[in-house]
């Protein structure tokens, strides 16, 4: 049973971590990556200035359990993206 | 909005044909959770990106000698009430589909979230489940 989506790139439908250049971190289901940036669905954001826990702990919880989809749709602009990786490749 | 039931039916049968019990209502879920012993609850999904490997992984794992006493499934996005009730038994775990929860006496023993299924093959998914079965389901 394959996916119903075509031409959206290798990370389409995959839960990814978007590491921001300014220290912010997003986790969400990747839709596409294009010139504008990384388009995510059902995402959550770790913002150091307001976070209640350190980034490493937040990411570790995300690896173990997943994330609460607080942001239905997010575009992380290309200029803000340091790197993107699959959440499933990280260890809790 | 739920998908066309005709489209979803083969994905339901993929699990039910392997002996997995389907829970369509909240009452079904409550009754299942009241059973004694170890239980595997599979949150099924139409998402081919992950569910396409989740279902074969579950079926493969259920061929293992050690396995949960009860195995059931709810269908996310289709049987909404049943899925919400199932998730209420997962404690503070965020919603995730497909996913799998191994439970005993109201305690979540092991959880496989969607991102741990994405990009893996059926054997890898089965291996994680079997490892959890061996740890938690031995008599």
Report on this model:
The complex is a heterodimer of chains A (92) and B (139). Chain A has 92 residues and is mostly beta strands. Helix content of chain A is 12%, strand content 42%. A five-stranded antiparallel β-sheet of chain A has the order 4-3-2-1-5. The N and C termini of chain A lie far apart (30 Å). The model of chain A has no long low-confidence stretch (mean pLDDT 91). In chain B, strands 1-3-2-4-5 form a five-stranded mixed β-sheet, sandwiched between helices. Chain B has helices at residues 5-16, 26-34, 51-61, 80-88, 122-136; strands at residues 21-22, 38-44, 70-75, 99-104, 107-112. By secondary structure, chain B is α/β, with parallel strands linked by helices. In chain B, a hairpin with a 2-residue loop joins strand 4 and strand 5. In chain B, helix 2 runs parallel beside helix 4 and helix 3 packs across helix 5 (122-136). Chain B is built from five helices and five strands, in the order H-E-H-E-H-E-H-E-E-H. Chain A binds chain B through residues 1-5, 12-15, 63, 65-69, 86-88, and chain B through 10-11, 14, 46-52, 55, 92-96, 99, 111, 113-120.
Q: Secondary-structure map with pairings?
A:
The complex is a heterodimer of chains A (92) and B (139).
Chain A: E1 15-20, E2 25-34, E3 37-46, H1 55-65, E4 71-77, E5 81-86
Chain B: H1 5-16, E1 21-22, H2 26-34, E2 38-44, H3 51-61, E3 70-75, H4 80-88, E4 99-104, E5 107-112, H5 122-136
Parallel strand pairs in B: 1-3, 2-3
Antiparallel strand pairs in B: 2-4, 4-5
Poorly predicted runs of chain A: none
What's the total helix number of chain B? 5
> Structural class given helices, strands, pairing of chain B?
alpha/beta
Shape of chain B: globular
Strand order of the largest sheet of chain B: 1-3-2-4-5
Distance between the termini of chain B: 42 Å
Walk across the major sheet of chain A and give the strand order.
4-3-2-1-5
**Morphology call of chain A:** globular
Helix content of chain B: 40-55%
What is the terminal-to-terminal distance of chain A? 30 Å
Major sheet summary line of chain A: 5 strands, antiparallel
Low-pLDDT runs of 5+ residues of chain B are: none
Strand content of chain B: 15-25%
Structural class of chain A: mainly beta
Work out the number of β strands of chain B: 5
